UniProtKB/TrEMBL annotation:
Family recorded in the similarity comment: Belongs to the krueppel C2H2-type zinc-finger protein family.
Localization per Swiss-Prot or TrEMBL: Nucleus
GO MF term list: DNA-binding transcription factor activity, RNA polymerase II-specific; RNA polymerase II cis-regulatory region sequence-specific DNA binding; zinc ion binding
Primary location recorded for the protein, binned into one broad class: nucleus
Gene name in the database record: LOC108181150
Protein name according to UniProt: Zinc finger protein 595
Keywords for the protein's UniProt record, in alphabetical order: DNA-binding, Metal-binding, Nucleus, Repeat, Transcription, Transcription regulation, Zinc, Zinc-finger
Length: 441
């Protein structure tokens, strides 16, 4: 299952943006210090750190793993690690090299937001965040990716995007070894291990690991900026999700599989589906090496390794690894069936049931018997077919033909007698017994 594609500005991690601004201010202060004590052209050195595309990266910081194109840039960077930071935050113990940076940092704790957008009234703790926000109104996207042509409003988001192409993941979790392209993503991941959910909704008490998730959640209570479907009245937090939803009403499936003619509402759904044909499983679990076709499934799987069940049902108190499992469980309390077939309007509690049902309409038969080549729409049908074939092979020469079993039924003793004596293994006996049960049912 995949989440719908979301816009870059909505996906950004607010916490990380604040960290980056603080880090930039920290670097500015240290540059001034370096100018006083070191005979080095700072502007030239920093410019050389931004290497052109394709140039070999040779110098790596042993403390944080950051890479540089020249030794001089690395040496300057190492000074930042070794610099004394005498100003400590009393609330979170983060340290800074000058008092001004500490003052900027304290806005995170006090909630102070002195920078206000004159177009929509939204306020920010840092001027850099306001400047980034203003590009939403102007539509300006000055940063273009040379690899794929995608454009971005903010340089930092652009830099994060580049790492997708280069494969760079400099931020590594010390507990499980998983690495990330962004520091904010690592910080959010660490809360899986700690179970920390510091951001709580004042109206319903629900807690979140990330501030942005809380901000999105609050819109459910306030109705602010919700995007509502004019056909069914369902509301969504993001316009891109509404756009995907509208296709379920129009039944518009623009993306076709050229191997089985199955159609999809979204391009990413088609991309995931094609891996069924190629058997590609590019997302590998770092704990057990199990492979998955979709990143979302890998994330759900890895939460089981963490052992943290941080999604609790408010009705019965039962806890779950993922929000998806919780929602599926809650439908048992509410009777809700949110997954609707676009062909016949039948509804289901779980998306898996909907997918299986839709094969009736599409004619897709993905499960094939290796013995006879017959194909089935459902795995259960293939298993039933296999058990029947297994039963027939075991009943060769038996005094109880299959048609007599169906017609007359059989007692437990007769069923025991039908399992051949030469079936010594528990697996063979269970296979024969299950096959008989299928026939009798």
């Amino acid at each position: 299952m995949n989440d719908p594609e979301t816009s870059g500005i909505k996906q950004e991690d607010v916490e990380e943006r604040i960290d980056l601004i603080e880090e930039n201010k920290e670097i500015e202060g240290l540059i001034e210090l370096a100018k006083k004590h070191h005979d080095v052209n700072i502007e030239e050195t920093l410019t050389s750190a931004s290497w052109p595309s394709g140039e070999t990266i040779c110098y790596i910081c042993p403390q944080c793993g950051r890479s540089f194109s020249c030794e001089q840039s690395l040496n300057l960077h190492i000074q930042f690690h070794n610099e004394v930071k005498p100003y400590a935050c009393d609330l979170c113990e983060k340290i800074f090299s000058n008092k001004g940076n500490l003052k900027e940092h304290m806005k995170r704790h006090t909630g102070e937001r002195p920078y206000m957008c004159d177009q929509c009234g939204k306020s920010f703790a840092h001027k850099g965040n306001l400047n980034a926000h203003m590009k939403i109104h102007t539509g300006e996207k000055p940063y273009a990716c040379n690899e794929c042509g995608k454009r971005f409003k903010q340089k930092q988001i652009f830099n994060d995007h580049i790492k997708i192409h280069t494969g760079e993941r400099p931020h590594k979790c010390a507990q499980c070894g998983r690495s990330f392209t962004q520091k904010g993503a690592l910080n959010a991941h660490m809360k899986i291990h700690t179970g920390e959910k510091p951001h709580s909704c004042e109206q319903c008490g629900k807690s979140f690991t990330r501030r942005q998730n809380l901000t999105d959640h609050i819109k459910i209570h306030t109705g602010e900026n919700l995007h509502t479907c004019d056909q069914c009245g369902k509301s969504f937090l993001k316009s891109c999700v509404l756009k995907e939803h509208l296709r379920t009403h129009s039944r518009e499936r623009l993306f076709n599989c050229d191997q089985c003619s199955k159609k999809f509402f979204r391009a990413d759904a088609l991309k995931d589906h094609l891996r069924v044909h190629t058997q590609e499983k590019p997302y590998i679990c770092s704990f057990c090496a199990k492979g998955f076709r979709q990143m979302g499934n890998l994330k759900m799987h890895q939460k089981r390794h963490s052992g943290v069940k941080d999604h609790m049902c408010t009705e019965c108190g039962k806890t779950f690894f993922t929000d998806y499992e919780l929602r599926v469980h809650q439908s048992a309390h509410t009777g809700e069936k949110p997954y609707k077939c676009s062909h016949c309007d039948k509804t289901f509690k779980r998306p898996e049931y909907l997918k299986i049902h839709e094969r009736i309409h599409t004619g897709e038969k993905r499960y094939r018997c290796d013995s006879c080549g017959k194909r089935f729409t459902q795995l259960s049908s293939l298993l039933g077919h296999t058990r029947n074939a297994c039963l027939k092979s075991h009943l060769m020469g038996s005094k109880f033909p299959v048609d007599q079993i169906v017609e007359h039924g059989a007692s437990n003793a007769e069923v025991d007698g039908m399992i051949p004596a030469e079936s010594n293994s528990a697996t063979e006996k269970m296979c024969a017994f299950n096959a008989i049960q299928v026939v009798l049912d």
